Amino acid sequence: MMLPLVWNIADDDLVARMILSEAGGRILTEDGQIDAIGMAWVALNRTLGLHPGFDYARSDLYAALITPGQFQGLTGVRPGEQGNAAIVADPEAHDSWFGTQPGAGRAAYWIARTIAQCVLSQRAPDVTQGALFFSDARYARDASGDLLRGPDGNLIVEPWPDGRTHFRLLSGSISYTIELPIEIKRNSYDQLTQERR
Questions:
Q1: pTM recorded for the entire structure
Q2: Which residue among 17, 72, 79, 85 is buried most deeply as judged by most CB within 10 Å?
């Protein structure tokens, strides 16, 4: 029996690992970084106590991120699964999961960590406008709009055609992608980088 990973780390590190578990190598692209800002805001938005479905996460980022069934890249889809937690616990040991270049895991981690710090310090604005959900895939449909099922009877899931992460304010509401003016993103990264020197 596999024991669940226990996370005992700073909030920005845990948010960074959630981003990595959801985005994988896409974090190394500009669109992936924009989407990652939105992912971090979804986690933070769930802690604000503005929606009764997230009472378990009120003022508790740790609970928001590791509650089973939430942020499935980190926690898994079914009870007992760990999602991509083992990979993001040590991204430097899994370069090939993040890209083809040596050091891709390390680069991905530090980009995700910087994004997490910018969001948690609110240097990066909430570009999701309060979204509580995101997804990288949708249910496949046939030409008439009916849901498609595989040979096992399960619904077929496919990536969004645009390859982006889609956000929702509420479950079942219309999904949307976010765009971020590069100067906002760059200013936040530059400011944080200068503070580290």
A1: 0.81
A2: 17
